[in-house]
C-alpha cells in the first residue's frame, strides 16, 4: 500500500503544471477578444451615428464637421484602439464607395473624403475632400447615400497572443433625407 502511495505523490502538482498554462491562455484570450469586440461595437455604433447624422445634415456646408463631431464623440471612450481614418463617401446601393476607393488609394478617390485625426484636436482632410457637401444630391428623386467608414487599429493589451490588430474597418450607409420643399 505504501508503494502505491509513493508512486502517486506529485501527480497533482504535475497535472496542475500542465493545466494551469492552458487555463491562463484561455482566460487571457477570452479577455483580449472581449476587449477587441467592445472596440468593434464602439466603432460600429460610431459609424451608424455618423451616417445617421450625415443623412440629416445633407448638403449643409457643415455636414462633414457635424459627422466627424458625432463620430469623435461616439469613439471618445475607446481605450485599446486608435482611429486611423474616417471616410465620408458617396455610397452605392450595395454600401461601398461609388468611386471604388480603397485603403492605400485615398489620393485618387473622387467621391470620398478621407479624414485623419490630429492629436485629439480635430480632423485633417488628406485628399482635398472632393465630395463637398454642396455636391450632395438631397433633392427628390435620386437622393445620394452618405457612407461613413471608420478605419482603426486595435492594440492587444497583453500581446500574449501574436494576432494582427488591424487595420480593421466598419461602414454604415444612410440615404440623404430630402431637403425641405424638394418634392415633385
Give the low-confidence spans.
none
Strand % is 15-25%
Number of domains: 1
The assigned structural class equals: alpha+beta
Q: Give the number of DSSP strands.
A: 5
The share of residues in helices is 25-40%
CA gyration radius, whole angstroms: 24 Å
Distance from first to last alpha carbon:
97 Å
Total count of helical runs of at least 4 residues = 3
The major sheet is characterized as: 5 strands, antiparallel
Spatially, the strands of the biggest sheet line up as 3-2-1-4-5
User: What is the approximate shape?
Assistant: elongated
- Give, in order, the helices and strands: HHHEEEEE
State mean pLDDT (0 to 100 scale): 88
In a nutshell, what does this entry contain?
With 184 residues, this protein is α+β, with helices and mostly antiparallel strands. The chain is built from 3 helices and 5 strands; from the N terminus they run H-H-H-E-E-E-E-E.
